[in-house]
Amino acid sequence: YLRDVRRERSEIAPDVRAVLTEVESVHFGARSPSAELFSRIHDRVVPLVSKALGVILFFMAVSGTISCGHLGVDNINDIDDNGKAVFRGDSSPSGIHGIASLVELVGVDMRQHLEPLEKLPDPAISTLVLLPGFDVDDIGRRRLLDWVKQGGHLVFAGGHDFPDWTGVVIESEQTARHAARPVGRYAYQFGNIELSLPSGSLLRCSENDTFFTRDGLCYAAHHPVGDNGGDVFVFADDRWFMNITLPFGDNAAFLLSFFGALHRNVHVLDKP
């Protein structure tokens, strides 16, 4: 990794080397982790990832050490000509390859869903994540509602036209600027965390459905559906579900906690 950084980003190579030395002293050596060591590494890493988006390539390379596995695919047709798994959640800043690798730590298998809505996975064991570019017509919305009623977990990662049964709409007149936080009744699950995100959209939702707030307003909503444990989560945007958010705030911790608490067979629906 250091050789790659020296070749591609020589100006940050000394700082990267210092970070790797600290990490390896614990991972491969006899040094014990401590709050002091974590803070020192953290204080070195944050300026690095803030210098330019290009450094995210370094981060994604390191994230590959999280798991020796590969992202799941739905069937044998999802293999390219070189025999590699096809997954559109790439390692670019706006992709989700790093997120998929991260959540493997808590046993989550995240894959792109390449089948039509007529062939959704088993709702008793599955979570669907709909990205903003995935279009759903009226028939598809009814099909998703029936699927959730059977016990599925459905996550809208942003969008502008949510089904009526989610109970939310986009707030068109206000924009959020500060961190997002879980409301009180969800703090026991996620702790006192903050999602560090760029300025973005907000939702209008009921107080009972409010999941995360931002600038005192609804950023994410949680709405139970049916009597079989079905749940719908709606986020105002998809900024929390991108590789680039991982190094900031408590974003990675939230992703682990959030997906770890849902059905761990996760299918991501994106535009074709």
| Strand element count | 10
What structural category arises from helix and sheet content? alpha/beta
Q: Kindly state the percentage of residues in helix.
A: 25-40%
> Largest sheet, if any?
8 strands, mixed
Mean of all residue-level pLDDT scores: 83
Total of helices: 8
Rg from alpha-carbon coordinates:
20 Å
Strand-residue proportion: 15-25%
Amino- and carboxy-terminal Cα gap: 33 Å
Strand order of the largest sheet: 1-10-2-3-9-8-7-5
Shape, per Cα inertia axes:
globular
Low-confidence stretches: 52-78, 84-88
H-E order: HHHHHEEHEEEHEEEEHE
Description:
- The chain is α/β, with parallel strands linked by helices.
- Helix content is 31%, strand content 20%.
- An eight-stranded mixed sheet has the order 1-10-2-3-9-8-7-5, sandwiched between helices.
- A hairpin with a 4-residue loop joins strand 8 (217-225) and strand 9.
- The protein is globular and about 55 Å long.
- Mean pLDDT is 83; it is low at 52-78 and 84-88.
Which features does this protein show?
272 residues, single chain, 8 helices, eight-stranded mixed beta sheet, globular, alpha/beta, 20% strand
Brief description of this entry?
The protein is of the alpha/beta class. It is built from eight helices and ten strands.
Strand and helix map with partners:
Blueprint: H1 2-8, H2 13-27, H3 35-51, H4 56-63, H5 97-103, E1 109-112, E2 126-130, H6 138-149, E3 153-157, E4 169-176, E5 180-182, H7 184-190, E6 200-204, E7 210-214, E8 217-225, E9 230-235, H8 251-260, E10 265-269
Parallel strand pairs: 1-10, 2-3, 2-10, 3-9
Antiparallel strand pairs: 4-6, 5-7, 7-8, 8-9
